[in-house]
Every structure is written in structure tokens, then in C-alpha cells.
Amino acid sequence: MNDFQFNIIIALIPVLGLILTAIVGNVAKKYGKNLDLNAASFWTKIAVSIFEDRYGKGKGDEKKQDVIKFLKEQGINLSENQIDLLIEAVVKELTIAEVINKE
Questions:
Q1: pLDDT digits (tens, 9 = 90+) for 11-37
Q2: Going by C-beta distance under 8 Å and a sequence separation of 6 or more, which residues neighbour residue 91?
Q3: Do 37 and 85 form a contact (C-beta atoms < 8 A)?
């Protein structure tokens, strides 16, 4: 190998490092968001179940505020809209599974 080829290889090493860093960073970000959403869903199910048992039927606003407070205490950092949607989805899921709102 001559000096020219060696210099090209040496010049390409940082470029390859940048490409690999970008790929690994994107994969980590993707899986990190999935883990955050899974944790948020897990804690929301627990909170909805707990506050549904505690308050019973009705008092939806109080239960919702307690669930939001509980999620923030667990370190769940989602927007207000995301939390609202997550709570609604969990309530629907638990109602369908007859865990809450049994008649």
C-alpha cells in the first residue's frame, strides 16, 4: 500500500465514525422513545386502576388529575395532550377488559 492509499484510509475513518454514530444515535432514540411510551402506558394502567378503585364511579376530573400527578411523580414527561390521550386509551382498554366500570 502506498502513501496515497494510506492517507485516504486515514481520512475515511472519521467519516465512517460519524456515519456509525448517526446510525446508532437514531436507533437508540427510536428504542428510547418506545421504552418511554411503554413505561408511560404501564404506569397509567396502574394509576387508573388505583384511582378507579379509590373513587369508584364518577369524579372523573379528580381521578384524572390524580393520575396526571402520579405520572409526573413517576418521571413520565409527556405533553398534556399526550397524557390525555393515553389516559383515555387506558380507560377504554380497562373498560373493555372489564377491569374497571363493571356493570
A1: 777 777 777 777 777 766 666 665 577
A2: 48, 100, 101
A3: no
| Separation of alpha carbons 31 and 72, rounded Å | 21
CA distance 21 to 74: 31
Q: What's the CA gap between 85 and 22, in Å, rounded?
A: 32
- Between the alpha carbon of residue 89 and those of residues 16, 37, 40, the distances in Å are 43, 13, 12
**pTM score, two decimals?**
0.64
Other beta carbons within 10 angstroms of residue 93's beta carbon come to 15
Q: Which three cell numbers stand for residue 79?
A: 405533553
Cα separations in angstroms, 46 against 11, 29, 66, 75: 54, 26, 12, 14
User: Which position has the higher pLDDT, 44 or 99?
Assistant: 44
Cα separation, 37 vs 44, in Å, equals 10
